[in-house]
# Entry
Amino acid sequence: MSKKGILIAVEGMDGSGKSTQAKLLYHWLRAKGLPVFHTEWNSSKIVKEATKKGKNTRRLLPMTFHMIHAADFADRWAQQIEPVLEIGGIVICDRYKYTAMARDGSRDVPREVIEETYSFAREPDLTLYFDVPVDVSFDRIAKGRPRLKFYEAGMDMGWTTDPFESYRIFQGKVSEIYSGLVEEGRIVRLDAEGAVAEVQSRVRVTFDKHIDLSTVQVIDQSDRLAQNLSESDIDWLSYSGGDGQ
Amino acid sequence: MTHAGKLIVIEGPDHVGRTLHARLLSARLKANGIATHIIGLARSELMGEIVKSRTADIHQLNWRTRSLLYATDLHDQIKHEAEPLLDAGFVVIADRYTLTPRIREQVRGGDGDWIDSLYSNTPDPDAMIVLHAGPRRLLNRIMFGESLEALNHFEAGMDLALSSSITSSFLQYQKILRQEFQDAGKKAGATLIPTRHTVQEVHDRIWESVNPVVEHMLQPIDGN
# Structure
């Protein structure tokens, strides 16, 4: 198993603000000139097709849900995460295997099964758990939305016939599992209530406390500049001193 | 897990005669009053079409991702088809089950134990048959049946870089597979049956090995 590179994961409930914070963390590290890569849960093409089909026909069951998400993660692990770690880069994962533990676990897939399926994914160097009270994240997601999606609300489990009530039950279970993971010391709790900037400063403090960036090789200034130039339009008028020649 | 029905697994490489013999076994059981259902790789409602139509894409994937896609496919069939039908007393015939997806990746460097763990909560087979045949025989069947053009890159094991010729790669690859199937079959207590004999002889041997499992369920054709 690779010990190279730095692996950071962010976890938390929908509406906890973790994605916003993960992106800010990414931009901060990039601004430092570090080789950093950001990846999100659920994105590969082939799995998306099957997931969509399974959701539309409501055919997905806890076990197939578990497998299909793991397939997606395994794809990202092989294509994106491991290659970056191998060259000593930093990877920020917006959701990691703990999401599977929380969500699939809430759907009664045994923890041993989940651990075994994800056994190839090493424990991150830091996993930030964005903790907000269930009511707060519930309001952020549920407010202003006429309805919740079937699986999103956990309606497949048949806990109740009311989607909003079902979602609350589901999130309650998810939150409980996350709390357990905090107690096991596998993820680090971060108070995610408050303004974005406020939370980001907490993120940076916690990050600095756990992560030593001195081992990561900074990308040469000339390479960074070249990369920035290649991605931007050049103002030739000012470049050549006025006449554009 | 106990259920009224029985799960019969038929494993083996492509062109060995698995699908034909699964069909014959199913037909004979039906004639004897037993309801049957066939499941198999890439046949699920959820994944089957996708896995089949995108075979080339799937072979580009990392072995772990591919294993998980095949596991999803099988789990979908187990949860929606096999388990309810086994409970109802059907004989479910699996035209490939957990052995093929493991062996195919193992010979490509995949971790067999990890792949097995993806199937840890699937029903155990009540009887398991591994069909095998010599590589040249399999190649002859392809040539006679469909012509060599039907031989695909992956089936020939071209990705293992055993040979730059598709036929000699196929022969070497199938030799490795045959050994793996036989070893795994023995370990799992399967009946190993060579398919060099006539279809009827092979079917009779399959029937013979399945018979003890289904005997109590049979309702003879010439009975009332």
Q: What stands out?
A: Residues 32 and 220 of chain B are 5 Å apart (CA to CA). The longest strand of chain B covers residues 6-11. The beta strands of chain B are 6-11, 36-40, 91-95, 127-132, 191-194. Residues 6-212 of chain B form a domain with the Rossmann fold fold (CATH 3.40.50.300).
